[in-house]
Amino acid sequence: MALRAILFDLDGTLLPMDQDTFLKAYFKGITTKMMPYGYDPNELIKAIWAGTEAMVRNDGSRQNEAAFWDCFAQKFGEQAKNDIPMFDEFYRVEFQDVQKVCGFNKEAVAALEKLKSAGFKLALATNPLFPSVAIESRIKWAGIDPDVFELYTTYENSRFSKPNPAYYADIAETIGCAPEECLMVGNDVGEDMSAQEAGMDVFLLTDCLINKGEADISVYPQGSFKELLEYVGKEEADVR
Which of 66, 138, 49 lies closest to 102, judged by CA? Predict the structure, then answer.
């Protein structure tokens, strides 16, 4: 099938970052915000990780947002859901400081512009573990208008997470493409290359490579955004 859509990961792909540095800044910000409301920092971090795991394990029976907050409430009680507006405020305000630990890649912005102009559908396949306000912010940190994407996944609009192949199948269905018409571009071998299991083609962006399982990456098309554009051009030429 001809390539019609290109999916991009965000963190470490369109938005350069060191994951550990990002998480450190994120947790410092959210614990500082919520401590005055009675949240012990260590317990809050544990609850966020537990909620994240609940989203990763989500079987599709509910949205990730519900999976997270139901798990979070098991730790702090159902009344904790009343504090959701304060968490949302954190993402609108204090979370913006986390941009300081992220980079910027003009080649990523240019690549999106070229691919959009070439007629490809673009989707942001970032792991949907954050609310839309946080994901929209990180898209903008990368110098990108969120409207360039047909879809960007958030914990409100997703019922699976990476590396579940069903996550990628859902994206393909939402944007009106067969998985075989999609290319997934990402920097995390374990999370992003699993799109192959859904029937998608993949490209490994190596600028901020994550390969926790020390897999053999020679099996994947790979490189920087320059090589990505060359790969997409070759694929199109082969189809024609």
Answer: 138
Rounded to an integer, what distance in angstroms lies between the CA atom of residue 15 and that of residue 65? Answer: 23
Q: Which two tokens stand for residue 92?
A: 């609108």
| pLDDT tens column, 39-50 | 999 999 999 999
Q: Give domain limits for the chain.
A: 5-17+103-239, 20-99
Asked whether the CA dihedral 205, 209, 214, 218 is positive or negative, the reply is positive
Side-chain half-sphere CA neighbours of 128 within 13 A: 30
d(CA 207, CA 103): 12
Fold of 5-17+103-239: Rossmann fold (3.40.50)
Q: What is the pTM of this model?
A: 0.94
Could you count the other beta carbons within 10 Å of the beta carbon of residue 206?
14
Q: Where are the alpha helices (DSSP H) in the chain?
A: 19-34, 41-56, 64-76, 84-92, 106-117, 132-141, 165-174, 189-192, 225-239
